[in-house]
């Protein structure tokens, strides 16, 4: 009745649920629900910079993500709200990334 593929997919989904549920609660508790989207937007800047500098895409995205985390940490200590910082940084990184992509020939 159940295909072997479906059983494996259901077990994998159950494993993801068991791992993501506590992590999701922690993220909401720390008021960092926007952090994943902000990091994804910043990844565009990392890809653009890595293509422009002819380095590994992974290294470029990792560098931009770490830089974003450091900036968020420093500015949070100054009293700015986490969601405000993440919103501004996400859209600024996305804008700079799109401009950088447009200059790549």
Automatic annotation (TrEMBL):
It comes from the Bacteria. The keyword Transmembrane helix applies. It is found in: Cell membrane. GO terms for biological process: response to zinc ion; transmembrane transport; zinc ion transport. SUPFAM superfamilies: ABC transporter involved in vitamin B12 uptake, BtuC. One of its GO terms (cellular component) is ATP-binding cassette (ABC) transporter complex. Keywords: Cell membrane, Ion transport, Membrane, Transmembrane, Transmembrane helix, Transport, Zinc, Zinc transport. The chain crosses the membrane at residues 6-29, 41-72, 84-104. It is a multi-pass membrane protein. It holds the Pfam family ABC-3. Belongs to the ABC-3 integral membrane protein family. Involved in the high-affinity zinc uptake transport system. PANTHER family: ABC-TRANSPORTER METAL-BINDING PROTEIN, HIGH-AFFINITY ZINC UPTAKE SYSTEM MEMBRANE PROTEIN ZNUB. This is High-affinity zinc uptake system membrane protein ZnuB. It comes from Spiribacter salinus.
């Amino acid at each position: 009745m159940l295909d072997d593929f479906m059983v494996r997919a259901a077990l994998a989904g159950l494993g993801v649920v068991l791992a993501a549920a506590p992590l999701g609660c922690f993220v909401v508790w720390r008021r960092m629900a926007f952090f994943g989207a902000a990091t994804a937007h910043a990844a565009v800047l990392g890809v653009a910079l890595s293509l422009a500098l002819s380095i590994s895409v992974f290294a470029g995205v990792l560098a931009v993500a770490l830089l974003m985390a450091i900036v968020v940490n420093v500015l949070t200590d100054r009293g700015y709200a986490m969601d405000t910082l993440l919103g501004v940084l996400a859209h600024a990184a996305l804008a700079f990334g799109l401009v950088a992509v447009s200059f790549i020939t």
